[in-house]
Amino acid sequence: MKSPKRRRATIALLTAAALLTSAPVSAAPLADAPGAPGTGAAWTTGGKEGFGTATDAASKVWFTLGQGISHEIYYPTVDVANVQDLQYVVSDGAGFTQLERDHTSKQLVLTDPRSLSYRQINTATNGRYRITKTHTADPARSTVLIQTRFEVLSGGPLQLYVLYNPSLNNSGMGDTGATFGGQLVASDGPVSSALAASTGFVKATSGYSGTASDGYVDLSGDHVLGAQYDSASTPGNLVQLGQIPVGTDTTFTLAIGFGGDRGAASANASASLAGGFAAADTAYRSGWSGYLSSLAAVPRSISGAGLTTQYNVALMTLKAHEDKTYPGANVASLTNPWGEAKDANGTGDCGYHAVWSRDLYQVSTAQIAAGDSAAANRSVDYLFTVQQRPDGSFPQNTRLDGTNCWTSLQMDEVAFPIVLAWQLSRFDAGMWAKVKKSADFLVAHGPSTPQERWEENGGYSPSTIAAEIAGLICAADIAERNGDTAGAARYRETADRWQAQVSAWTFTTSGPLGDGRYFHRIDGNGDPNDGQNVFLQNGGGNHDERAIIDAGFLDLVRLGVKPAADPDVAASVPEVDSTLKVDTPNGPMWYRYNHDGYGETASGGPYTGAGVGRLWPLLTGERGEYELANGRSATAHLSAMAASANPGYLIPEQVWDRQSTGGFTFGEGTGSATPLAWSMAQFVRLAHSIDAGAPVETPSVVKQRYSAACSGVAAKFTVNATTSWGQNIFVVGDRAELGGWNPANAVPMASADYPLWTAKVTLPKGAAFQYKYIRKEGGNVTWESGANRVGTTSDGCTLALNDTWRS
Predict the structure, then answer these.
(1) Catalytic residue among 452, 456, 600, 627
(2) What is the pLDDT of residues 751-783, one digit of tens each?
(3) Which residues in the chain show pLDDT less than 50?
(4) 627 part of the active site
(5) Under 8 Å CB-to-CB from 510, ≥6 apart: which residues?
(6) What SUPFAM superfamilies would the database entry show (predicted)?
(7) Domains along the chain with CATH numbers
(8) pTM score, two decimals?
C-alpha cells in the first residue's frame, strides 16, 4: 500500500484519556506534516464483498467492503465517494508491521438474512492475531460504525492501529486533516470526515501518502510510530493513523462520521459512539426487515429452491442503490470497476456511481414485480423530471443532479422510460406531455443509434430497435388515452415499419458463424450482408460486422416485438450458444459478444482500455426469460445466477471465464463491478417470471400487437419513384394477392408521401414471393428494369419492403 520509509520527530505523545475529551490533546501546537501532496491516489477494486446503508433518509452514508477491509464510503449522495480504504495495522513493536488486507486469511459472513449486515473475520497468516469486524450505519445520522474485536492468539502483546485513507469529495488529492478533540478529522470542500474510537487513540497523526509523514511509512520503518503530526494543512493525498489501546482480547467501536464541515462530522461520530453500536445496529436491522416485510411474498421459485436469502439481498441491494437526496435516482453500482487502476486525483471519473435510464428501467421492472411500485414511480418521476432533455432525449448517463457523466446517446435509453411509464399506468396529461417529446424524438432519430446497449458502437441494433418499437407502441397507447389519435397512428405506423424491417437490417444470411443465418450485434448501415467493418471501441479490434454476435436480439421477444417462436430469433440461438456460451462450475454463462475487450487482461490485470471480455450473469437471466417465453424451464438459469454470487450474496457484473488463475475463480466475480444493480434486478425479475410462466417485463400492449395470432402478414410495399402527371405506380407479383403477374390486376399504390408510393397487401405467413413495380399511363404499361425482386414473409404480423424504382 505504502512504500516503507522512516522519519522521526520528537513530539508529545497523545494519551487515550486526553483524546476522549473535546479539549485539544496538547496545549502546545504540534508540527504540520511535510511532504504534500504525496503520491497519486487511486480507488479500490470494483469487486465488493458486502455493502450497506440505513433505510432511513437521515443517514446519508453508504459503506462498501472488500479484501477483508472497508472500501469506498459514499456521502452525502450515492455518487460522491469519500474513502479509498480503511483497515487495521498490527505490529509487535519490534519485528513486524502488517497490513490487515495483505497478511490475513479472510471470511465474510452475512449476519442477518433480512439485513445488509456484514461481519469480516480476518486471521493473521502468521497465527498471531484475529480481527473480527461487524459493520452498520447509524440510521439517525451519517456515521458508519465498525464494532471490532481484536484477539491476540499467540506471542503478545501486540499494537493495533487504524489506517484511514480518505479521498473526500470524489478526489484523493484535495484533502487536509488534523487531530481535533481526540478524533482524526479531514475535509475537502463541502465534505468532511471524523474518525473516532470508543477507546480513544493512544497516538494519532496525519500525513501524506508515500512520504515520510505517512504514519504507515513511519511505522513500517522500525515498527514504532514516532512522528506524529497534528495537522496536514496543504491539500494532498491525506493518510491518517491512530493507535488503539488493546490487550489480548479487546472489543471497541470505530466511528467514521461525515458532515458538511469538520464540526458536523465530529459531532456525528461522537453522537453515534455515545448511542452505542448495539442500539444503532438494532435500528439498522429493523429498518431492513421492515422494508422486506412491505413487499410481495417471496416467489415459489425462490422459496422452493432455498434461495430466499439471495432474493432478499437482491431486493435490499436495489433499494440501497437509490439516493436519499434525489429520490428515484439509482446508481448502476456503488463501485468503480477496476478502481485500483483508476486515477483518483481528480473528480472526473463517475465510475458506475451514475444513473443510466436503461439500468434504472431494469431495476424498476424488478421492483414492480416484487411489489415496490412506489420505488419504480419515484424512478420514472426522476427520469422525466431530472434526466429528460428539452428535445425528449435522455443522456447516456448522469450524476444525480442530471449533469452529464458520459456524453453519448443511446436510443434504447430514450425508449425505456416510455415503456416504464406505461407499465406503471402513468397515463395522466402531465406525463403524456413528457412521453410525447421522447416518442417524437424516437420517430425523428431512430431506428439507428449512436451507441447500443454495450455503449461502444453505433448503427442498427436488434436490442435497441426492440426497445424503440416497444417505446413507440406504449407511447401510442398513452397518446390515445389522451386524445391524440394522430400521434398514436404515427407512432404505431413507425413501430410497425421498423418491426417489419428489423430482420432486413440486422439478420445476416451470409455470416461466417454456424449456417450463416443469424442476428448480428450491430450493423453500420442496415445492410447485414455487405461485410462492413466494425471497430470495437474497447480494444477488441476491427472485424467484419457479420462475425460479431450477441444475444441482444432476445429483447425482441422479451419486449413483445416478435413472438417467441419467430424463425429468425430461433435461427440465431445456435450461433449464440456455440460462440458465446460457457458452462462454468456455477452453471451456463454467456459473453456479451465475441471479441469483446471489456474485461481483465489475459494475465488477469485490471482493464485499462483493452482486455478480454468475461461472462455476464445477467445474460443468463435474460436467456432464462427467453426460455420461459418458449414454454420451457428457466430454473437452471436462476440457480446459475445465484451460484455466481459471492459469500455476501452479491451478484457480479462479470465472472471469470476459464480455469481459476491469477486470483480469480472460474464462474465467480472479477474486479469489474460487484454488485451490479442490473444483475440483482435480473435475478429478481427472472424469479417472478418463472412463477408467472412468462417474462413479467413484457408490455402486454406490445405483445398483443405483434402476437403470432394474426391471420396473415401485412406487407407494406414502399418505392421511391418519380412520375409525370397522369402516371401511377403499381406493384405486381407471382402471387394472386399481387395480381399473378397480370398488370391488369396489379395493386395500385398511393402517393400521399410522393415521391414515395405505398401499398399494403396481406400475404400468408412463411410465403416466398417475387414482385416488380410498374408504371401505368392510360393503356401503357412500363415495367421497371432488372431481375424480379424477392421477398419472404415470416411468422410475424408485418413486413416492410422499401425499394427504389429501377429505370
Answers:
(1) 452
(2) 988 999 999 898 888 889 999 999 999 999 999
(3) 1-29
(4) no
(5) 516, 529, 531, 546
(6) Galactose mutarotase-like, Six-hairpin glycosidases, Starch-binding domain-like
(7) 50-287 (2.70.98.10), 295-336+352-707 (1.50.10.10), 713-804 (2.60.40.10)
(8) 0.87
